[in-house]
Each structure stands twice: as C-alpha cells, then as structure tokens.
Amino acid sequence: MGANNTPDQDELRVFHTGDHACGYWPTRIARDLVLDPRDPRMPNLYPMALGWGFRRSGDIVYRPHCQGCRACVAVRIPIDQFVPDRSQRRCLVRNANVEARVVPAERTDEQLALYQRYLRARHRGGGMDEHGGVEFDQFLIGSWSHGRFLELRERSVEGKGPGRLLSVAITDVVENALSAVYTFFEPDLPERGLGTLSLLKQIEWAKRDHRAHLYLGYWIEGHDKMDYKRRFRPLEAFDGRGWRAMPV
C-alpha cells in the first residue's frame, strides 16, 4: 500500500488518524489506519481490506493502529469448521419460535425504534443514544457497502402479519464471506440471548450460501463486551501478516 495525490491512480491511499479517545478503554488513546474514503474503488477494495484486518463503519474502512497497544485483534469464523457448543445449542432451542430473514439494507421506522431502545439501554450517555434516522443511515448503511439486514422476529400467530422484531444484524455481503458490522436487539429480553442468536443465524446464512468466513470485527482480551467472540470456535485471528487459528 502506498500514497499518491489522486484516488484514481493505481496505488491505495492509507491515512493515519489523529489521536482520539479509545472506544474500549477510556484511559487509553487510540488512532487508526483509514483507507481513502474518496477512492471510487472502495466497493471492490473492501473485501481485500477485510482480509487485511480492516473493518467498516459507515463509509469508513479502518484498522486500529495505536501507539504501543495491539489489544484489538481482528477475528473471523471459518464456517465449515464451526460447531455450536452446548450453550449455543440451548440458545437455539430456547428461540425455536424465532424466524430469521434477510432483507434489504433500508431503514424502517420499526428498526429505528428498536435501535434507539437498544442504545438507550446499552450506551446511555455515550453520545450514540441520541442517534436518529440520519445517524442510523450514516453509521450502519453508508453509501457504497453491499449490506443486508438479518432480522430476527417472533413467529407470527396464525400467519397474521410479521411477528415482533427482536434483533437486526447489519451484515456486509462480500465475495466468499459475510462481515458482522453491528447488531442491535430488544434490550428487555436477556433470557433469549439475542446477541448470540444473531451470530448463530449469521453463521447459518453463511453456511447456506457456501461462504468461507464470517468476520466478527475485533476481539479484545479481558474486555467484557468483546470476549463473547471467543465462544465461537474455532476462531481465526489476524496477526498483521496472515490469519492464524486462535488457541482454545
């Protein structure tokens, strides 16, 4: 990767951001590598960038590149090797009345209302809890991604319209892989394990479409909100040069 003055030349422009507050450890300072968001080739570059340990947020494709810290580790699930553990199988049984469907990445009022309930419950006071429709589109959809929404709904009674919306998993669809961008779900149903269920349904989707991997973004050892990813085994981690199996 190199740098040049115009985005239509062959080389790919990569930028360092300035220092900013870490979103995971409040006492740490972070910075990122960002692919040039003005590059018109971004839809085609993005699948390769996932393979380099990058991730998408809106139209920004980035990878943490912090001074003296390598806590964020890009991880992915090799779909053909995944077998749900006992807890995950129980989650599937417990949610036998939940149906999954893939829909276009287009915001609805119902999805926005669920998103706002989720943010108020999980991220109150962090700035995101004020998100409206514009922020929803900018953060989750963007202008160029090949995304879909995986909706989880309670099975409707006697086929009378769609059932209650429980979860939405924003999922990028690229050649031979899916990427889990962000998931929000009904915060008042902890007994359902909707975060786990959403990932299991994304794995089922990837397996059904014969895709090799599901990218999960970053895992951080010792971080309560990120450590759940270790429960999806086997797991591969990007070490800066290539993907390696993570130790059990």
From TrEMBL:
Record GO terms (molecular function): arginyl-tRNA--protein transferase activity
EC code(s) of this entry: 2.3.2.29
Reactions accelerated catalytically: N-terminal L-glutamyl-[protein] + L-leucyl-tRNA(Leu) = N-terminal L-leucyl-L-glutamyl-[protein] + tRNA(Leu) + H(+); N-terminal L-aspartyl-[protein] + L-leucyl-tRNA(Leu) = N-terminal L-leucyl-L-aspartyl-[protein] + tRNA(Leu) + H(+)
Source taxon at top rank: Bacteria
Keyword Transferase attributed: yes
Residues annotated as domain N-end aminoacyl transferase N-terminal: 20-90
Top-level EC class as recorded in UniProt: transferase
Subcellular location: Cytoplasm
Keyword terms, alphabetized: Acyltransferase, Cytoplasm, Transferase
Domain spans labelled N-end rule aminoacyl transferase C-terminal: 110-238
Classification via InterPro entries: Acyl_CoA_acyltransferase (IPR016181), Asp_Glu_LeuTrfase (IPR017138), N-end_Aminoacyl_Trfase (IPR030700), N-end_Aminoacyl_Trfase_C (IPR007472), N-end_Aminoacyl_Trfase_N (IPR007471)
Function (record text): Functions in the N-end rule pathway of protein degradation where it conjugates Leu from its aminoacyl-tRNA to the N-termini of proteins containing an N-terminal aspartate or glutamate.
Family, per entry: Belongs to the R-transferase family. Bpt subfamily.
Name of the protein this chain belongs to: Aspartate/glutamate leucyltransferase
Protein's organism: Noviluteimonas lactosilytica
